[in-house]
Amino acid sequence: MMKKFQVSGFRFQDLKTLFLIILASCNNPFETRTPQQPATGGVTVKPANTPENVLYNMRVTFEALSVQDYLDVFSDDFVFNPDPEDSIEYEDRFGSVWNKNREIDFANNFFLAVNADTLAHNSVSVTLFKYSYRPGQDMYEYDYEVEIVIKEKLTVLSGRAWLFLREYSDGKWYIYQWVDHRYEKKKITWGVLRALYI
């Protein structure tokens, strides 16, 4: 007859049970795991395979302050043309061509300013209306109103924009030229915003 093994108050049977409990609670390293859900709050961009998608991406990524996604809508040869009044008033900013590098500097500066104080409930909202697409020119023409809240101060941009797009060799559409127009005196335009954050 087999004798029960006992050490300092524990029986062999108790150790065996404890070992099985520990083993059952371990995860199998070879077992597939349930994928984690992505964090909420990100921006969803559409494939840049149509001009409409690029225009959508430009708007939502600017609102979401997603700097790289915003910059991805512009071609490497991108040029911004401000309203003539803005060119004169901010000649020091617009005296040279506003290219993709200038747009990168603007976006980094502006998004950093909006994101600087997370407790201030800063926000950006872009509304596009009265827009039309001219297929022969691959150009969108639209009126815009942009509301920006930084440290509880509201700034409203308004005007008319022409966005010229083309399909590039990678099969994607990009904005290669942005022409800004003021339709009311003393209104803040995209050009003024760019001049303030460069």
Outline of the structure:
This protein has 198 residues and is of the alpha+beta class. The protein has helices at residues 12-25, 51-63, 67-71, 84-89, 91-94, 100-115, 190-196, and strands at residues 6-7, 10-11, 74-81, 98-99, 123-134, 139-150, 153-167, 173-181.
Map the helices and strands.
Blueprint: E1 6-7, E2 10-11, H1 12-25, H2 51-63, H3 67-71, E3 74-81, H4 84-89, H5 91-94, E4 98-99, H6 100-115, E5 123-134, E6 139-150, E7 153-167, E8 173-181, H7 190-196
Q: Can you characterise this structure?
A:
The model is unreliable at 32-41 (pLDDT under 50). The protein has one domain: Nuclear Transport Factor 2, Chain: A (Roll). It is 33% helix and 31% strand. The chain has 198 residues and is α+β, with helices and mostly antiparallel strands. The strands form two sheets. It has a six-stranded mixed β-sheet with strand order 4-3-8-7-6-5. The chain has seven helices and eight strands, in the order ββαααβααβαββββα. The N and C termini lie far apart (90 Å).
Alpha plus pi helix count: 7
The gross shape turns out to be: globular
Q: Distance between termini?
A: 90 Å
Note the beta-strand portion.
25-35%
Q: How many domains make up the 3D coordinates?
A: 1
Q: N-to-C SSE series?
A: EEHHHEHHEHEEEEH
Gyration radius (Cα, Å) is 28 Å
**CATH architecture group name:** Roll
User: Regions with pLDDT < 50 over 5+ consecutive residues?
Assistant: 32-41
Which oligomeric state applies?
A: single chain
Helix content: 25-40%
- Enumerate the strands of the largest sheet in spatial order, edge to edge or round the barrel: 4-3-8-7-6-5
Class from helix and strand fractions: alpha+beta
| CATH fold assignment | Nuclear Transport Factor 2, Chain: A
Q: State the CATH class.
A: Alpha Beta
